[in-house]
Design goal:
Number of strands: 0
Order of helices and strands: HHH
Strand content: under 5%
Number of helices: 3
Helix content: 40-55%
Structural class: mainly alpha
Largest sheet: none
Number of domains: 2
Length: 97
C-alpha cells in the first residue's frame, strides 16, 4: 500500500520550494507585459491554501460599505464565535434628502 501522507508531504515541500521561483517568473512576465493567467492563478491559489488568514477583508468591507455591518481587525484578538464587528468606517458622507 502506498503511503499517501508521504506523498502529500513531498507535494507540500515541492510547493514551498518552488513558490519563490514562481514569483520570480511572474515578476519577469509582468515586466515583459506578458499574460500568464495559469501561473498567476496558481500563485494566488498557493497563497490562499497556504495562508493562515482567509481572504475575507474585501468581503467585510463590502458589507460595511453597503449596509453598516461593522467589521473586526486582526488585532482585536481571538473571537470564539462570529460576532458583529466592533468597527465601522464612514465610506462616504451621509446624504441629506
Amino acid at each position: 500500500m502506498v503511503n499517501l501522507l508521504t506523498k502529500s508531504d513531498k507535494a507540500l515541500q515541492d510547493l514551498k520550494n518552488g513558490f519563490p521561483k514562481l514569483k520570480e517568473v511572474l515578476a519577469k512576465a509582468t515586466e515583459a507585459d506578458m499574460v500568464v493567467p495559469s501561473l498567476s492563478a496558481t500563485a494566488e491559489w498557493i497563497k490562499i491554501i497556504g495562508g493562515t488568514d482567509l481572504p475575507t477583508a474585501f468581503y467585510e468591507a463590502q458589507l460595511d460599505y453597503f449596509g453598516n455591518h461593522m467589521y473586526d481587525t486582526k488585532d482585536d484578538g481571538d473571537m470564539p464565535d462570529p460576532t458583529e464587528g466592533k468597527h465601522h468606517f464612514e465610506w462616504k458622507p451621509a446624504s441629506k434628502k
